[in-house]
Amino acid sequence: MTVQNIRPGSKRTKRQMGLTIFLGILCIFFLLPFIILLSVSFSSEKDILLHGYSVLPQHFSTESYEYLFKNATGIIQAYKVTIITSFVTMIGAVLLDALIAYPLSLKRMTGKKWISLYLYFTMLFSGGLVPTYILIAKYLNLCDTYLVYILPALISPWYIFMMRTSFAAIPDGLLEAAKIDGANEYTVFFRIVLPLSKPVLATVALFTFLTKWNDWNTSMLYINDENMISLQYLLQRIMENITMLQNSERDLSGYMSVSDIPSETVRMAMAVVVAGPALLVFPFFQKYFVKGLTVGSVKG
C-alpha cells in the first residue's frame, strides 16, 4: 500500500521537475534578447562593428548613454510629459469606458443594440487625418497642451466591448440582491461590478498605458512647444539626426568624425530608456492580464 502511494507521487514530482526545468530554459531564451539589448547599450560602437552582438560587453562603455543624455533636461521633461499623459489617460480611459460598458451590459437597457452598432461603426470608419487635425487644432485649440494627448484616447469602442462582455458575465441575481438591500446604480457599479471585474480592468489599463507610452505621432502633429513633446518623439528625432549626420560627409566641428557617432549602441540605449518604465509597470498587471483577455473576449 505504501509503495503504491509513493510511485505515483514520485512520477508526478519528476514530471513537475522536468516541466520546471523546461520552462526555466524557455524563460532564459525569452530573456536573451533583453540581455543582449542591455549588453549592446553598454558596449562601445567599435566593439559592435568588429565583433557584433554578444551577451556580455567586450569592453564596458557608457558612451551611448552619454551621447543620449547630452540634452538631459529635454529628456527629463519628455519623461515628465509622457508619464503624466500615460497615467492620466489610463485612469480616465478605464473609468469612462467602464461607465459606458456597464449600461450596455444590462439586459433591461433599451436601445443598447443601436448604441453598440454606433460604437462598432466608429471602429470601421474614422473622420480621417485632416478633419481630425482641423477639429483638434482649430476648433478645440488643444495644440501644445496635455489635453491633446489625453482627450482623443479616453474612449475606445474595442475596450468598451471587452468590458461589456465581462460585466454581462456577472450574475443578475447578485446585482438584484444589492438593489434589494438599498444600493443604487452607482453603488452597484463601484462597489460590486468594478471589484468583480479586476482582470478586464487591468487588461484595459495596461493596453491603454502602453499605447499612450509609445505614442509619438501626437507630438509630431500637434506639438510645437519643445517642452511638451513626448519621450518617443524626442528619441526618434535624436535617431533621425544621427542618421542625417551619418549620411553627411562633413565632420562635427573637427572633433568627431561622423562615423564615430555611436549609432547602433544609441539605438539600444534608446530602447532601454523607453522600455524600462513599461517593464516596471507590467508586473503589477500580470496577475490579471491573461485572465482579463479571456474574460473580456468579444462575443455576439
From TrEMBL:
<dbReference type="InterPro" id="IPR035906">
    <property type="entry name" value="MetI-like_sf"/>
</dbReference>
<keyword id="KW-1003">Cell membrane</keyword>
<dbReference type="Pfam" id="PF00528">
    <property type="entry name" value="BPD_transp_1"/>
</dbReference>
<keyword id="KW-0472">Membrane</keyword>
<dbReference type="GO" id="GO:0055085">
    <property type="term" value="P:transmembrane transport"/>
</dbReference>
<keyword id="KW-0813">Transport</keyword>
<dbReference type="GO" id="GO:0005886">
    <property type="term" value="C:plasma membrane"/>
</dbReference>
<keyword id="KW-0812">Transmembrane</keyword>
<feature type="transmembrane region" description="Helical">
    <location>
        <begin position="117"/>
        <end position="140"/>
    </location>
</feature>
<feature type="domain" description="ABC transmembrane type-1">
    <location>
        <begin position="79"/>
        <end position="285"/>
    </location>
</feature>
<dbReference type="InterPro" id="IPR000515">
    <property type="entry name" value="MetI-like"/>
</dbReference>
<feature type="transmembrane region" description="Helical">
    <location>
        <begin position="146"/>
        <end position="167"/>
    </location>
</feature>
<keyword id="KW-1133">Transmembrane helix</keyword>
<feature type="transmembrane region" description="Helical">
    <location>
        <begin position="83"/>
        <end position="105"/>
    </location>
</feature>
<protein>
    <submittedName>
        <fullName>Carbohydrate ABC transporter permease</fullName>
    </submittedName>
</protein>
<feature type="transmembrane region" description="Helical">
    <location>
        <begin position="266"/>
        <end position="285"/>
    </location>
</feature>
<feature type="transmembrane region" description="Helical">
    <location>
        <begin position="21"/>
        <end position="42"/>
    </location>
</feature>
<comment type="similarity">
    <text>Belongs to the binding-protein-dependent transport system permease family.</text>
</comment>
<feature type="transmembrane region" description="Helical">
    <location>
        <begin position="188"/>
        <end position="210"/>
    </location>
</feature>
